Model the fold of this input.
Amino acid sequence: MKIVKIAGVTAALALGVAACGGGETAEPAPAASAAESAPAAAGPKFAGQTLTMWRLGDSNPPAQAYMDDLNAEFQKVTGATVKLEWIPWPQVNDKFTAAAAGGAGPDVTEIGNDQVPLWVSQEALSPITPLTSAGDQAQIPKNLFGLETIDGEVYAVPWGAGTRAVLYRKDWFDELKIEVPKTWDEVTAAAKKIQDEKGKDVDGFAFNGGSDANHLLGAMAWSEGGDYAVKEGDKWVGKLTDPTFKAGFETYTSLVTGGLSGKSRLTQNTVDIRTRFANDKVGMYLTASWDIPGIETDSKGKVKADQLAFFPLPAKTGGEAPAFFGGNDIAVWGTTKNAELAGEYIKLATSKQWADRYAKDGGLLPVYPDTLASLASDPVQAPFAAAFAKARSFPADPNWTEAGETKAVLQNAARSVIEGKASADEALATANKELEDILNQ
Done:
């Protein structure tokens, strides 16, 4: 079994809607009957068995309550109990790597959908294609299975989706009489006003240069018409030197060179930024609504949800920037000895009732079309639901994580420009060659 050390599994996820779905939205299948949606097994068959399930990240009250209720229902339906383990994000890669190498792994695991190709390449996930063609799961649009489908087999089921928008301190905007920005110039003006009033050590708009930096850079590059790489035949061809990508890259680095974010924080990721945001050190940053419970916790209750709001990231060229679209999946671990029971768990967890609640309780978007459509009138979720059609993703290749996180190809390029060690053209030429080498290895 091949094992590759991959650092920093993306907490913020990546849903391959545009890259893998070809921009086409599949027609949802007719609604399934209750009988079709229910798990096939009945209690006595699995009574006394235990299923191990991994959830990623840190627990919070809504997430824990959801898991408690889901697992109680699973026990009621199947007779089996669930051993739930929460895996903090900094430990996810090591846990997955150790389990894939033959260590103690789960039966079922939550997984970022951008990670599915990687772990399939490590033979760490089991195919579960039949689970997606019947019951409620048949209603999930097929274009949401882009990263989950490899060589005709499905290895994970979408559980909840997430895109990104700009989270801002609504109370600060009200206090400083700042209108919600609709253009990039208005974003920079708002950021400067926040710094003038709240202090120069505050990031008006936080620069993300850490493990999930490409969520911000990608949105800026895509808004200019750029892309990271395209598949030509069986080979990836880098596009980082194209003028369109360079334009977005320069907007990204200007957050620091223009003084909107501190030069001493070039490696901060979303978790780092969230902590500073919770401590009154950030005015705006790109993230998703799943950060709000963490902000309330990090601030010890001083910053509450009603002090916060979102707006779509404006493109420098006008309009809204294409959002990076992420998602959480659920999958069967490849070495499970309880494959049938694991399949029953996934059928229950991704049924419409439980998947809709998973999304709602986790601040994610639902994967079922009718529930997603109902969010148009939700002031918190509407910006994310509206971004669905414009969402983009990174190259759908198992080696993307190595380029985007482990070797930090674009992060290093940005840092070299910000620190004055290279021009944008030089940095992107170097990065483009490195990206091609990694994707084509």
Summary: Residues 204 and 353 are 40 Å apart (CA to CA). The first strand starts at residue 50 and ends at 56. The chain is about 40% helix and 15% strand.
